[in-house]
Amino acid sequence: MRQQVAAIQDAMAREVKAAGTTVQLDELRRKYLGRKGMVARLFDELSRLEPDERRESGRLLNELKARCEEMISRRRAEIEREETRQALSRETIDVTMPGRRPPLGRKHPISRVFDELKEIFLRMGFEAVDGPEVELDYYNFEALNIPHNHPARDIQDTFYVTDEVLLRTHTSPVQIRTMEGRRPPIRVIVPGRAYRSDATDASHSPVFHQLEGLAVDRGVRFSDLRGTLALWAKEFFGPDTKVRFRPHYFPFTEPSAEVDVTCVMCGGHGCRLCKMTGWLEVMGAGMVHPRVLENVGYDPRELSGFAFGMGVDRLVMLKYGVSDIRLLLENDMRFLKSI
Ligand SMILES: [Zn+2]
């Protein structure tokens, strides 16, 4: 019996030492100390021994059992310590490693140009207002002196919702809404979106952006318009920029003009961008038509005003050297990151 006990103890000591996981330890515990384990089997044999020998062997077996328990729990503690150490070293943070920077968003070039334009005109005393993009025919055409047979009303140019409701084709209806709602002096700008059923190409898009300006008061003259836009051009394109006005026709202004600025690329010497003219057309402008003033209940003999409207997409393209308007609307991150 003494020899058997010593043999089991040695074998167990070896196996416990070799065990690498707590699962293996659990198996060993079953093998030696379980109800049908090796130690239990020796206990069974006690009954066949003589009383003296039985007492002595019983003591040995109890000692063996206690030592086995102790070996297993000591080894279990070692394994758990080792597992904790490994987990900690896996999860260590290397504080010397450079951090990962989350990509920072920024404003779209159209928003940046809108902000810049607003800043310039707000400094001159204008106030920014807005109005609905789904508009009544009356505000989009009728009140702006655009007669029923005018080509702009063609179904091919305008997105109609019903006969009387449409997507505004310019920001000008907000001029009418503003004049209806208050008395002069009025100095407002209208930044916003407009819609025309143009086929899409490098310079046309069915949705585009405008900034409209309107000033109405006693004694507003064409020279006020010229001065306002000359200052705007210097602020927006640079101090050497000049403006020129070419006679034109718009139903809602009289007289009307198309406004050019000296070419941003060649400074007026002539290049491919300005088709060798030295000038770039950037907006339409004029004195508010007397009939438009009458339509909102103003007396054109007493009040006068000027209005202008610029295509913001074109300004973005000129400012950032973009050759295709579609790039401004496609939200391609490669393009947006590049400008
Ligand atoms: Zn040029």
Show the helix and strand layout.
Layout lengths: L1 H17 L3 H12 L4 H8 L5 H40 L18 H15 L3 E2 L5 E3 H4 L24 E3 L5 H9 L4 E10 L11 E11 L4 H16 L5 E8 L2 E10 L16 E10 L1 H6 L8 E8 H9 L12 H6 L1
Parallel strand pairs: 1-4
Antiparallel strand pairs: 2-3, 4-5, 5-9, 6-7, 7-8, 8-9
Helix pairs in contact: 1-4, 2-4, 5-10
Zinc ion binds next to loops.
At CATH level 3, the topology of the largest domain is BirA Bifunctional Protein, domain 2
Number of strands: 9
Structural class: alpha+beta
Overall CATH class of the largest domain: Alpha Beta
Terminal CA distance reads: 90 Å
Cross-sheet strand order for the largest sheet:
1-4-5-9-8-7-6
Largest sheet: 7 strands, mixed
Radius of gyration (CA) equals: 44 Å
- Summarize model confidence as the mean pLDDT: 90
Unreliable residue runs: none
What's the structural domain tally?
2
What can you see in these coordinates?
By secondary structure, this protein is an alpha+beta fold. The protein has 2 domains: 2-90; 109-338, Bira Bifunctional Protein, Domain 2 (BirA Bifunctional Protein, domain 2, 2-Layer Sandwich), CATH 3.30.930. Helix content is 42%, strand content 19%. The chain contains 11 helices and 9 strands. The strands form 2 sheets. A 7-stranded mixed β-sheet has the order 1-4-5-9-8-7-6, sandwiched between helices. Strands 2-3 form a two-stranded antiparallel sheet. Strand 6 and strand 7 (253-262) form a beta hairpin. The radius of gyration is 44 Å and the shape is rod-shaped. The mean pLDDT is 90. Bound molecules: zinc ion. Residues 263, 265-266, 270-271, 273-274, 278 line the site of zinc ion (ZN).
